[in-house]
Specification:
Elements (H helix, E strand, L loop, with lengths): L13 H4 L11 H32 L7 H4 L3
Length: 74
């Protein structure tokens, strides 16, 4: 079969067809480490907040009056 026209292997056009987001360099390791540290600190802070809420809600709950049968002194 005869070839029609010029059949020349094209150079890699990936650089031309990439979106602008794909042209950005990869994130440096320092940034990912910093983000990991910040996420851990955020998690600790949120857990502490939740513990504080749980204790404050427990203190707001009405206390049971002491059982009069158990408080009698013989």
């Amino acid at each position: 079969m005869d070839q029609v026209g010029n059949v020349v292997p094209q150079a890699d056009n990936a650089a031309v067809t990439r979106s602008p987001k794909e042209n950005k360099p990869r994130k440096p390791a320092e940034r990912s480490q910093r983000l990991a540290v910040e996420l851990r600190e955020n998690l600790r802070r949120r857990k502490a907040q939740e513990r504080g809420r749980a204790t404050s809600e427990a203190s707001k709950a009405p206390q049971k009056p002491p059982d009069s049968k158990n408080d009698e002194v013989p």
